[in-house]
Amino acid sequence: MYSLKNTTKCTFVGSGFIEILDFEDKEFYTFENLKDFKFNLPAGKFKVVSGNFTEIPFSQRNFIKLPKRERFLKIPKTLKIVKRENPMKAVIYKSEGLIYVDPSIFELPQFCFDFLKYHELGHYYYSTESYCDLFAASKMLAKGYNPSQIYYGLELLCSDSVNTPEMDKRIDIIFNHTKNGTI
Ligand SMILES: [Zn+2]
User: Fold this and answer.
1) 3-state SS, residue 137
2) Does domain 80-179 correspond to CATH entry 3.40.1350?
């Protein structure tokens, strides 16, 4: 195992089995059995458990076409995130720029937290939940996340709640927009 510090988002090309943890030892990115495949990592500190890969110039290969904005709310300069018990996982007070996030979210991998944060930010643009998910996915890809992390992030966020038909539909939409969660 060795440390990897990305001062900026990066693209890598690698093969074999790749396993990367974040610096709190939570899972971050795992992939296997592909030759010369490209993946991205956002800026940050990571621990490489396994993998043979080299850095190449950053390129974002996956893009999401966003729906037309439904809302034109003023976005505050900073968003404040506060830990607070919340059965809905997170809620945003848009005019204050305040997001209450349930403590359980901080136990999950970083990509879950980022998905949630960007989803809430999406509510400045959209009222439809699945559009906020697409907004979050688009932000995450631009930040250096991989499609599979977006899909898996939403799945983990939903895993302990009762699956409603609306939730299933949201998961399906993200599945279809992230190369079926495969890369
Ligand atoms: Zn929402």
Assistant:
1) helix
2) no
